[in-house]
Specification:
Length: 101
């Protein structure tokens, strides 16, 4: 039988929710469903008409916003001067998840 080791990995909070204004539209990364109401997954959505009528296909606003999205994941977060842990890429909050490896 395999012996699993528990390993702690840190993730930037932008892995769960993130939003950015691109012009007059808002691009959001969060957990939502495209076609099946019970099949939720993390993906981008946009407030523009092209995204709504494109049935979930990525529009030009999403393509532009993706360059700004951090989604860092790793073993060693940064430590801020006040002692809090932070994402080394964007300095936002981090959360810890434990994985069996």
């Amino acid at each position: 039988m395999t012996d699993y080791t528990i390993e702690t990995r840190y993730h930037c909070k932008s892995c769960k929710y993130w939003e950015r204004n691109i012009g007059k539209h808002v691009v959001v990364f969060d957990e939502h469903s495209h076609k099946n109401q019970y099949n939720y997954q993390y993906d981008y959505s946009c407030s523009c008409e092209a995204y709504k009528f494109g049935k979930g296909k990525h529009c030009k606003h999403i393509m532009e916003a993706r360059n700004w999205h951090c989604q860092w994941e790793g073993r060693t977060p940064s430590c801020l001067p006040n002692g809090e842990l932070a994402c080394p890429s964007c300095f936002s909050e981090v959360f810890a998840l434990q994985h069996a490896v």
